[in-house]
Sequence to fold (135 residues):
Amino acid sequence: MKPGAIAFILILILYSAFEVYAVHRTAYRMEPAFIFAQHAGALTAVEICGIDKSDQMARFDRNLAYAKQRARDARLEDGAGGAGDDVGAAVMALATAAADEVDALIAEKGCDDIEVWKLARRFDLLAKVNPPIPD
Fold:
C-alpha cells in the first residue's frame, strides 16, 4: 500500500474519532432540561436588569412554555420522577437553579457585564425560535 493511501486512511480515522468525541461532549446541549434552563436564565437576566423586551415577550413566553413541557415530558420518559407533581417540581427546580445562577452573576458583575449582555441576546434568539405547533 502506498504511503499516501495510509496517510489518508489514518487522517480519516482520526477525523472520525474527533467527530465522535465532539458530538459526545456537546450532546447535553440538546437535552430538553438544558434548553429549559437556558430559557429561565435569559428571562431572569432580562427581568432583573430591567431590559425592555416587551415586543418579544409573548413569543418568548410561548417558547418557554414549550421548553418547559418538553423538559417535563423528557423527565417522565426517563422515569426520573414519579407522579406528575414530582416531575413538575423537578423542572421548576431547574428554573430556580438557573435563576439563582444568573442572579449571582448580576450581583457580582452588574447588569453592564458582557455575560449579562449575552443572556439578553440569548433572550432575543430564544424568542425567535419557532417551536412546532402542538396537535
